[in-house]
Design goal:
Elements lengths: L13 E5 L4 H16 L3 E7 L9 H15 L2 E7 L8 H14 L3 E5 L6 H11 L2 H5 L14 E5 L9 E4 L4 H10 L1 H4 L3 H4 L9 H15 L5 E6 L8 H9 L1
Parallel strand pairs: 1-2, 1-4, 2-3, 4-5
Antiparallel strand pairs: 5-7, 6-7
Length: 246
């Protein structure tokens, strides 16, 4: 049983969700660094602690997650749900909604709901289906209703056609530094870790290949993809121009 609590947190502009403690860094680490450098506030919510992974202990992953959050200057918390056991249920949607109601972000970024890892897929569905709970006034939650302006999804292992591509070329070396903080996960190749790799055994090479692909779609050397599952409302062409000019 997970108890929903009211926590005195600083409201943020962007709230990231990840199934595991390195998912936000893997899928949207460049975006997070760009937000940090621009002084835009954000927080990270890990749904699990990644305790079932073949690489790294629970304690190591806790230390790494905290160090990565410090690198980003971000608040980070875990909902302590079971690793390799995430399921899109009404209870879990309510937990996700409670975090959104506490942080009150304008934008939420979550894993894309189609992925080879069941936890990534479930995390995306949990966030996607939490939206109704975010706005319910009669929900048994101490945090007032809050509806983000948009929820976007970052593909981790699926090369889905993006709605937006964020040019992360200028911060890609820093993104690699950020990933290397998760030493237990990215300090070696799959063969060196003694585990069976999915696809390319060198994880960071695989990440670079993916980010090069998404960047190439928008004429950039590196990029990170964001997908909208419904139209994003703009107030006028001025917002489109601001998007184009960064």
């Amino acid at each position: 049983m997970h108890v929903v609590t009211q926590v005195n947190v600083k409201h943020v502009d962007v709230l990231f969700f990840g199934a595991h403690p390195d998912d936000v860094e893997w899928g949207a680490g460049g975006i997070a660094i760009l937000l940090r450098d621009a002084g835009i506030s954000f927080a990270i919510v890990d749904l699990t602690n990644g305790e079932m992974g073949n690489r790294g202990t629970f304690e190591e992953r806790q230390v790494e997650a905290a160090a990565a959050a410090e690198f980003l200057g971000a608040t980070r918390e875990s909902l302590n749900l079971p690793d390799c056991g995430l399921v899109d249920t009404p209870e879990n949607r309510r937990l996700v909604a409670s975090a959104i109601r506490r942080y009150r972000p304008d934008l939420v970024i979550a894993p894309y709901w189609e992925d080879r890892h069941p936890d990534h897929a479930a995390a995306g569905l949990m966030v996607r289906n939490s939206q109704i709970y975010c706005a319910l006034k009669k929900l048994d939650d101490p945090n007032p209703p809050h509806k983000p302006r948009a929820i976007l999804y970052c593909p981790l292992n699926k090369f889905e056609r993006p709605t937006f591509v964020v040019d992360t070329t200028s911060v890609f070396p820093q993104k690699l530094d950020l990933l290397r903080i998760h030493r237990s996960q990215f300090g070696k190749t799959a063969e060196e870790f003694g585990v069976i790799a999915h696809g390319v055994g060198d994880y960071l090479f695989g990440l670079e290949s993916r980010d090069r692909y998404f960047g190439s779609l928008a004429g950039a050397r590196y990029g990170e993809a964001l997908i909208a599952d419904q139209p994003v409302r703009l107030s006028g062409l001025g917002e489109v121009l601001r998007l184009l000019h960064g």
